[in-house]
Predict the structure of Catalase-related peroxidase.
Amino acid sequence: MAAVGGISAVNVGAFAWAAGWFTPDSLRSGTFVDRFERVYGRHNGFRRNHAKGVSASGTFVGNGAGTALSTASVFRAGTTPVTARFSLSGGMPLAGDQNGTVRGLAVLFHLDGREQWRTAMVNIPVFLDRVPRGFYDRMLATQPVGATGRPDPVKVAAFLAKYPESERAMAVVARTTPSNGFANSPFHGLNAFRFTNAAGTTVPVRWSLLPEDPFVAGTHAAGRDYLFDALIERLGHGPVRWRMVVTVAEPGDPTNDATRAWPATRRQVEVGTLTIDALATEAPGNARDVNFDPTVLPTGIAPSDDPLLEARSSVYARSYQRRTREPHTPSAVEVPEVRNAR
């Protein structure tokens, strides 16, 4: 459990968290987590964001093509076990599913030796914020007010005027139709990283998981947990698979701005297949207690200059510290054992 759930020794974000800051203007990780609690309330034992979720497990089968980009062992031809988690954004573990809510898929690759690779991906094509302060400000600006149940338009307008890149990113996301479930949804690692191969060549990359299940446009369905219920039912009929595709940047492509997509013409390398073959109610020993810190990386993968990476690592560490010291209540999504994947 220490290796799976704890803060790894290679977690560079832990050092930023220990210092209590992660941006030049001294926005502190504790203050950031406090804002999540202010917006969503405090729910003991749950993540401060992506609170609602289920644990999953399976394998990643590398096809060997990724070794041209990175020395990481996960890209060799072979099989790597994974612990994963499907989730919805937001800090309310009992919130009803909404098709437009950002979906998450986090994966922990259990590599040979003492190394791990952890990544937390979402189903939208760009991130809504370029810098941590923008994320922090957006949470409050878009918080629904009691009188209308909707965000205050004056606060939203002021936020968008201050962060025009967020307005552009929101427009991109608004034009992207989500699928009707987790199993047929793409998931993107929106931050840039750096891959280094055996020859010492380093290239900036981003990666995506592209589903094998056919796309069907999403519509609202009955039931509080309809997206998770559909995933449970789908896994009951067999494993679900995604192809991992790595996109390689060219000179001039931004590596420090996750609100901007790279051109579709960039080189893409399919490096393997992720298979999820089992789901479980969150509990000790599975994904519940994993900190999916995106800066826990194996040799051959390194962070880029994207300022969100250090912030994510620091805030995840603070959230992990708080929730693991709190009493745990049952997950909002229960996976009946008789309906687990076979």
